Amino acid sequence: MRFTATSKGLIGVDITSATVKLIELKAVGGRFQVQSYAVRPLREGAVVERRIRDMEAVVGALGRVVELARPSTRRAVVAVPASAAITRVLSVPADLDDDEIETRIELESDKHIPFPFSDVVFDFHHLGRDRVSAGHKDILLVACRYQDVMQLTEALESAGLKAHAVDVEGFAVQRAFASLCREGRGAGEGESLALVDIGAHLCAFHVIRDGLIVYSRDALIGGRQLTEAIRDRYGVSLEEAGLAKKRGGLPEDYAASVLTPFLEMLVEQVGRAFQLYASANRQYAVNHLVLAGGSCVLPGLAERLAQRCGVPVSLANPLEDMVVSPRVNAGALGRDAPAMLTACGLAMRGRR
What we know:
With about 350 residues, the chain is α/β, with parallel strands linked by helices. It folds into three domains: about 10-80 and about 145-175 and about 320-350, ATPase, nucleotide binding domain (Nucleotidyltransferase, domain 5); about 85-145, Dna Ligase, domain 1; about 185-315, Nucleotidyltransferase, domain 5 (2-Layer Sandwich). It has eleven helices and 16 strands. The chain has helices at about 55-70, 100-105, 110, 145-160, 170-185, 225-235, 240-245, 255-280, 300-310, 330-335, 340-345, and strands spanning about 10-15, 20-30, 30-40, 45-50, 50, 75-80, 85-95, 120-130, 135-145, 160-170, 190-200, 205-210, 210-220, 285-290, 315, 325. The strands form four sheets. A six-stranded mixed β-sheet has the order 10-6-1-2-3-16, sandwiched between helices. Helix 1 (about 55-70) packs across helix 4 and helix 6 runs antiparallel to helix 8.
């Protein structure tokens, strides 16, 4: 399934286990402009490990973000999780055109794709000449199951959107992270950047070098654990705990009895991932750590991580160099910015 680029605006839709996020970006004068955005919570269990389990709940949340954002386009980009995609770098004769490459992939699919080709959708991207084999070029093959793509496109279409493309989550993160690097967080020669993306249930640790994710590790800890700890400590509902965490106003003992133990667990998991990467890749040192996700703004987290890992730590803001439309609530968008990394990366596919 190959998709063409567009100079018009696109909507990035990020469907996680806790929320549905929508952002509409349009390239204007070499910069992106935020045309619209909205975030809505998802019912518990509707999405598990980035896969839809309750289509009705997801379509309902999608419909609400579309209604709130009122985007000027219906073309949307959504992502399958990296775990659902197969990626391979293939070397092919340099004189093959796209149709010939597609035919070759189909004929040799059993070498590269571990499930029946009839169940697969795929795309490929030209990487340039093969530096080892003369007369050859490298392509990046990406494949996933047809049902994974169709489930996402069905959700979009049921909410009144049109699927312009189905991306891979990791590629969207790389695309958005590249914009952060242009804002002064670039790694020098022999250096790398680490991204810690704190979701509701998972904390993803990525190392990015030369614009590509070269190392990833997930930890089973996320913002939902803090919400549950607040619920259990103060005898409130999960929804009330979530609102209290977001808006503040918790009892005086909250920091010592709930927040600090959670931060210690989170920092320990990130620090372990940092050490494992350092042990395996001593040649490429991480010189900066960037935090993303809804829980990355927790007070004291950045300082604790800087001390634990020994590198500067900052918050991700993929909107930093963007113009915001007057019809968008800039204050609310700014507060949500660290959690919009994947959604922004998906909407950035529209840039030529």
